[in-house]
Amino acid sequence: MALIKSVRGFTPQIGENCYLADNATIIGDVIMGNDCSVWFNTVLRGDVNSIRIGNRVNIQDGTVLHTLYEKSVVEIGDDVSIGHNVTLHGACIKDNALVGMGSTLLDHAVVGEGAIVAAGALVLANTIIEPHTLWGGVPAKFIKKVDPEQSKELNQKIANGYLMYSSWFKEEDKNK
Asked: Is the pLDDT score of 175 beyond 80?
Protein backbone atom coordinates (compact mmCIF):
# COMPACT_ATOMS: atom_id res chain seq x y z
CA MET A 1 0.00 0.00 0.00
CA ALA A 2 1.27 3.47 -0.90
CA LEU A 3 2.57 5.68 1.89
CA ILE A 4 0.11 8.57 2.28
CA LYS A 5 1.30 10.99 4.92
CA SER A 6 -0.16 14.16 6.43
CA VAL A 7 2.12 17.08 7.26
CA ARG A 8 1.50 20.64 8.53
CA GLY A 9 -2.26 19.92 8.67
CA PHE A 10 -2.47 18.83 5.01
CA THR A 11 -3.61 15.33 4.05
CA PRO A 12 -3.35 14.20 0.41
CA GLN A 13 -6.67 13.97 -1.44
CA ILE A 14 -6.85 11.23 -4.04
CA GLY A 15 -9.58 11.15 -6.72
CA GLU A 16 -11.66 8.19 -7.79
CA ASN A 17 -10.28 5.18 -9.67
CA CYS A 18 -6.63 6.09 -9.05
CA TYR A 19 -3.83 3.56 -8.87
CA LEU A 20 -1.03 4.14 -6.36
CA ALA A 21 1.87 1.68 -6.50
CA ASP A 22 2.74 -0.07 -3.25
CA ASN A 23 5.87 1.99 -2.67
CA ALA A 24 4.66 5.35 -4.01
CA THR A 25 4.88 8.16 -1.44
CA ILE A 26 2.33 10.99 -1.34
CA ILE A 27 2.85 13.65 1.29
CA GLY A 28 0.99 16.76 2.43
CA ASP A 29 -0.78 19.30 0.23
CA VAL A 30 -1.49 17.08 -2.78
CA ILE A 31 -4.83 17.03 -4.60
CA MET A 32 -5.15 14.47 -7.38
CA GLY A 33 -8.01 14.11 -9.86
CA ASN A 34 -9.69 10.93 -11.12
CA ASP A 35 -8.21 8.03 -13.11
CA CYS A 36 -4.60 8.89 -12.25
CA SER A 37 -1.71 6.53 -11.67
CA VAL A 38 1.36 7.03 -9.51
CA TRP A 39 3.96 4.35 -10.18
CA PHE A 40 6.70 2.57 -8.26
CA ASN A 41 9.23 4.61 -6.26
CA THR A 42 7.48 7.87 -7.12
CA VAL A 43 7.39 10.68 -4.54
CA LEU A 44 4.87 13.53 -4.52
CA ARG A 45 6.21 15.82 -1.78
CA GLY A 46 3.61 18.45 -0.95
CA ASP A 47 5.26 19.26 2.36
CA VAL A 48 6.41 22.82 1.61
CA ASN A 49 3.82 23.92 -0.98
CA SER A 50 0.93 22.56 -3.04
CA ILE A 51 0.80 19.94 -5.77
CA ARG A 52 -2.32 19.90 -7.96
CA ILE A 53 -2.88 17.08 -10.45
CA GLY A 54 -5.72 16.87 -12.98
CA ASN A 55 -7.56 13.84 -14.33
CA ARG A 56 -6.03 10.89 -16.23
CA VAL A 57 -2.46 11.80 -15.31
CA ASN A 58 0.21 9.13 -15.13
CA ILE A 59 3.33 9.81 -13.09
CA GLN A 60 5.77 7.06 -13.89
CA ASP A 61 8.35 5.14 -11.88
CA GLY A 62 11.02 7.00 -9.94
CA THR A 63 9.62 10.48 -10.51
CA VAL A 64 9.86 13.19 -7.84
CA LEU A 65 7.51 16.18 -7.59
CA HIS A 66 8.50 18.94 -5.16
CA THR A 67 8.22 22.72 -4.70
CA LEU A 68 9.83 25.75 -3.06
CA TYR A 69 8.47 26.93 0.28
CA GLU A 70 6.09 29.86 -0.32
CA LYS A 71 7.51 30.38 -3.83
CA SER A 72 6.55 27.66 -6.31
CA VAL A 73 3.86 25.03 -6.75
CA VAL A 74 3.38 22.04 -9.04
CA GLU A 75 0.36 22.16 -11.34
CA ILE A 76 -0.42 19.35 -13.78
CA GLY A 77 -3.41 19.51 -16.15
CA ASP A 78 -5.53 16.68 -17.56
CA ASP A 79 -4.27 13.81 -19.76
CA VAL A 80 -0.61 14.40 -18.95
CA SER A 81 2.13 11.77 -18.99
CA ILE A 82 5.19 12.27 -16.80
CA GLY A 83 7.89 9.76 -17.85
CA HIS A 84 10.12 7.59 -15.69
CA ASN A 85 12.66 9.29 -13.41
CA VAL A 86 11.50 12.87 -13.99
CA THR A 87 12.26 15.62 -11.48
CA LEU A 88 9.49 18.20 -11.58
CA HIS A 89 10.27 21.05 -9.17
CA GLY A 90 7.70 23.83 -8.92
CA ALA A 91 6.67 23.66 -12.60
CA CYS A 92 3.35 23.85 -14.45
CA ILE A 93 2.38 21.24 -17.05
CA LYS A 94 -0.71 22.05 -19.16
CA ASP A 95 -3.29 19.60 -20.57
CA ASN A 96 -2.23 16.86 -23.01
CA ALA A 97 1.50 17.45 -22.51
CA LEU A 98 4.19 14.80 -22.35
CA VAL A 99 7.33 15.03 -20.23
CA GLY A 100 9.94 12.51 -21.40
CA MET A 101 11.93 10.12 -19.25
CA GLY A 102 14.75 11.50 -17.14
CA SER A 103 13.80 15.15 -17.68
CA THR A 104 14.25 17.86 -15.08
CA LEU A 105 11.89 20.85 -14.95
CA LEU A 106 12.73 23.67 -12.56
CA ASP A 107 10.71 26.30 -10.70
CA HIS A 108 8.16 28.36 -12.62
CA ALA A 109 8.78 26.54 -15.91
CA VAL A 110 5.57 26.16 -17.93
CA VAL A 111 4.96 23.38 -20.45
CA GLY A 112 2.17 24.46 -22.80
CA GLU A 113 -0.83 22.42 -23.87
CA GLY A 114 0.10 19.50 -26.09
CA ALA A 115 3.82 20.22 -25.81
CA ILE A 116 6.49 17.54 -25.58
CA VAL A 117 9.63 17.70 -23.47
CA ALA A 118 12.15 15.22 -24.87
CA ALA A 119 13.75 12.55 -22.71
CA GLY A 120 16.70 13.81 -20.68
CA ALA A 121 15.90 17.50 -21.17
CA LEU A 122 16.74 20.16 -18.58
CA VAL A 123 14.06 22.85 -18.56
CA LEU A 124 15.51 25.81 -16.69
CA ALA A 125 13.55 27.94 -14.18
CA ASN A 126 11.08 30.41 -15.73
CA THR A 127 11.20 28.78 -19.19
CA ILE A 128 7.93 29.03 -21.11
CA ILE A 129 7.38 26.17 -23.56
CA GLU A 130 4.75 27.17 -26.10
CA PRO A 131 1.79 24.86 -26.80
CA HIS A 132 2.32 22.14 -29.42
CA THR A 133 6.10 22.39 -29.53
CA LEU A 134 8.92 19.93 -28.94
CA TRP A 135 11.80 20.96 -26.68
CA GLY A 136 14.92 19.01 -25.78
CA GLY A 137 18.54 19.21 -24.73
CA VAL A 138 20.57 20.54 -21.81
CA PRO A 139 19.46 23.21 -21.35
CA ALA A 140 16.21 22.55 -23.23
CA LYS A 141 15.65 24.55 -26.40
CA PHE A 142 12.89 24.75 -29.01
CA ILE A 143 13.28 21.98 -31.61
CA LYS A 144 10.12 22.22 -33.73
CA LYS A 145 6.40 22.76 -33.80
CA VAL A 146 4.26 19.66 -33.32
CA ASP A 147 0.99 19.03 -35.16
CA PRO A 148 -1.74 19.50 -32.50
CA GLU A 149 -3.70 16.43 -33.64
CA GLN A 150 -0.61 14.20 -33.66
CA SER A 151 0.42 15.49 -30.26
CA LYS A 152 -3.02 14.90 -28.78
CA GLU A 153 -3.20 11.42 -30.31
CA LEU A 154 0.24 10.45 -28.96
CA ASN A 155 -0.39 11.83 -25.49
CA GLN A 156 -3.86 10.29 -25.19
CA LYS A 157 -2.52 6.93 -26.39
CA ILE A 158 0.08 6.97 -23.61
CA ALA A 159 -2.44 8.16 -21.00
CA ASN A 160 -4.94 5.46 -22.03
CA GLY A 161 -2.16 2.86 -21.97
CA TYR A 162 -1.36 3.74 -18.37
CA LEU A 163 -5.06 3.45 -17.45
CA MET A 164 -4.95 -0.07 -18.85
CA TYR A 165 -1.67 -0.93 -17.08
CA SER A 166 -3.04 0.30 -13.75
CA SER A 167 -6.13 -1.89 -14.19
CA TRP A 168 -3.85 -4.96 -14.27
CA PHE A 169 -2.50 -4.11 -10.82
CA LYS A 170 -5.95 -3.30 -9.42
CA GLU A 171 -7.15 -6.70 -10.64
CA GLU A 172 -4.20 -8.45 -8.97
CA ASP A 173 -4.93 -6.62 -5.70
CA LYS A 174 -8.58 -7.79 -5.81
CA ASN A 175 -7.47 -11.39 -6.25
CA LYS A 176 -5.29 -11.43 -3.13
From this structure: no
- The mean pLDDT of 108-131, rounded to a whole number, is 98
C-alpha 88/C-alpha 163 separation (Å) is 22
Q: Which of 91, 83, 96, 123 is nearest to 110 (CA)?
A: 91
- pLDDT over 90, % of the chain: 85
**E strand residue ranges, the chain:** 3-5, 13-14, 19-20, 25-32, 37-38, 43-53, 58-59, 64-66, 74-76, 81-82, 87-89, 92-93, 98-99, 104-105, 110-111, 116-117, 122-123, 128-129, 133-136, 141-145
